[in-house]
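[step 3/7] fold_predict: job queued, chain A
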Amino acid sequence: MITAARAALLVTGIGLGWYGITALLSFAPAELLSVVAWFCGGILLHDAVFAPLSAAIGLGARRILPSGWWAPAACGAVCTVTLTVIAAPVVGRRHAMPDNPTVLDRAYLLNLTAALVVVWSLVAVILLLRRCLR
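[step 4/7] structure written:
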């Protein structure tokens, strides 16, 4: 069963990879260079900034937090970073159009704050449940 699932995932991955490569090859050379620049920039940003920063914060948190808090705090941190990165382009409302009120028509900062409150409330609930069950 596991081998069949792995084979299905392998075939699906190869098919999606082939689709992506053929889509990229249809781009004009200037567009392809832009894709390569963004791809390399993303890798460099991750490897030079985000990964070391995450490692430093994780090591610092392990020194401060009790060991039972590590996993919930890590989950909360990952959710916080993900939600913030996803919301970053719209929170500033830079591309809002005064003549079209349907573009960026929500209170994105308030919604991001509400989502983060929910995430960290769930982290607190998990920590409280762990404490009560012991």
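[step 5/7] annotate
Helices lie at 2-25, 29-64, 70-91, 108-133.
The chain has a mean pLDDT of 90.
exit 0
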